[in-house]
Amino acid sequence: MSFWDQALEVARIDLRIERRIGDVLRIVLPFAVVALLVFPLALGIELSAISRLGPAVFWAIGILFGMQVALRQTADDRPERRDLYSLLGLDPAARFVGRCLSGSVLMAGFLLVLLIATIVLYSPDLPPGWPTPVFAGLALTAIGLTELGTLAGEVTAGLRNRTALASLIVAPLALPIVIGASQTLESLARDAGILRWLILLVATDLALAVAGVALARPLEEASR
Amino acid sequence: MNRTRILLGTAALAVGVGLWFAFTSPVDRLQGEFSRIVNIHAPFLWVAFLAFGVTALASIMWLVRKTPRWDRLGEASAELGVVFTVTGLFTGMVWGQAVWGRAWDWGDARLATTAVMLFVYLGYLALRGATPDPEMRARRSAILGVVAVVQVPLVYFSVYMFRTLHQTPSIRPDGATMPPEMLTALLVNFLAITYLYIALLVARLDVARAEERVAIESALAGDAVKPPRLTEVEDV
After folding, report:
1. Closest residue of B to A187, CA-based?
2. For a Cys staple, B113 with which of A37, A183, B155, B202, CB 3.0–4.6 Å?
3. Considering only CA atoms, which of B43, B45, B44, B58 is closest in space to residue B148?
4. All structural domains of chain B with their residue ranges
5. Does the pLDDT at position B135 exceed 60?
6. Calpha distance B98→A62 (Å, rounded)
7. What is the greatest pairwise CA distance in chain B?
């Protein structure tokens, strides 16, 4: 099997497990939508404030709950599964790429549903021509967060306090992604250039991909 | 140990000289006495960047060589980087309170990104603390040490990327934006604080080596037998 065949196979298996267990759809997504509902209740019913804060709340909840998507139970390989991958001769880099592919699909879907919920609940003032840059930013955010989450998930695999520790690692490291994602929409609203923010997102995604592939073997050994 | 004591003693002396320069250099016309804080604030943060760079380098070397000394160096440097970042942030906040009228200003991108960088390395130290097996600890923290260093350029370039209260660097390739007396005081402090970092790093490495010796000497027969891990118990 070629590298990409291996990666696609890992992604396919991950998505199939997720479809059966449904961590993202049944737990993380409803929890995130509840968080979207709670915010306006805490703010009061001043509609203009709610509308103004909509994009910020979307990104804050998207990033925080996105970590739960990246660190979902179904992405945590048990030792037996890792041993099986090793015995099959699976390239660790292909495993990393496959895991990022499946995670990115889930993350993009998660953020998309959250975006729709935000538009419905918050009625934010979206600037004209928003869909293309927002969707591009959303896709790049999904890829970056997944790469970061996969790296953090691997270095904390098997630890007792894995979820909290991985979140502590991912949250501050996600800063370039948060900045790039939030500034894309803000720059669009101010009619300023969005290209630099998209470049920041692309550069971050690429840097994380290179780091993940280059460190794939030590990562595999670290998570045993 | 003698070498370490000499290093620490001379570092204290160097910091003393740096402080003397800081307190005798002329002050900024608008900021007054508070402008002296920059002599401590900027060098501490520069050394924090250096310390995190050393951690990244040591992490790469551990991944290549897999010898414990690179792991010790990475850990020691990260610990010092955290201490120096906290000191740099604190002095910056004291200056901000005096000059901007508030210790924390969201309009300052450098301040916010530095705080985030601090948490990245607190995560690095937390990961080390949570991994009991020494080799696994070294491997995992080496990986994170390589990835975490991306925060350093982000903090440095934040003043160019955003509209921010924080000034751009005063020392640039085309010259300095301050009088020579103030520049001299700042450069002396840069050297003194860098020397302090080196001395503390050597001392911390001595402690790490001693800890490792104690761990080896106090090992008992049967220690090699590992109890089942919690996850394995859960699997049953």
Report:
1. B162
2. B155
3. B58
4. 2-214
5. yes
6. 37
7. 72
Q: Do B130 and A158 touch (CB under 8 A)?
A: no
Tell me the C-alpha distance between B71 and B59, whole Å. Answer: 7
Consecutive H or E run containing A63: helix A47-70
Q: Which of B136, B233, B236 to mutate to test the interface with A (most CBs of A within 10 A)?
A: B136
Q: Give me the CATH topology for the region B2-214.
A: Four Helix Bundle (Hemerythrin (Met), subunit A) (1.20.120)
- The pTM for the full model equals 0.82
Closest residue of chain B to A196, computed from CA coordinates: B161
For residues A149 and A174, the answer to whether their CB atoms sit within 8 Å is: no
Query: HSE-up of B191 (CA within 13 Å, CB side)?
Result: 13
Where do the DSSP E strands lie in chain A?
none
Dist CA A166 CA A171 (whole Å): 8
DSSP assignment letter at B26: P
Chain A within 8 Å of B144 (Cβ-Cβ)?
A: yes
Phi (first) and psi of residue B188, to 5 degrees: -60, -40
Tally A–B CB contacts below 8 A: 74
3-state secondary structure of A1: coil
Classify residue A190 by its DSSP letter.
T
- The pLDDT tens digits along chain A (224 residues) read 888 999 999 999 989 988 988 888 888 899 999 988 888 887 776 777 788 888 888 988 998 888 888 888 767 677 777 788 888 888 889 999 999 999 999 999 999 999 999 998 888 888 887 888 889 999 999 999 999 999 988 888 878 788 888 888 888 888 888 888 888 878 887 777 788 889 989 999 999 999 999 988 888 777 66
Nearest to B71 by CA among B116, B124, B119: B124
* Cα nearest neighbour of B120 on chain A: A172
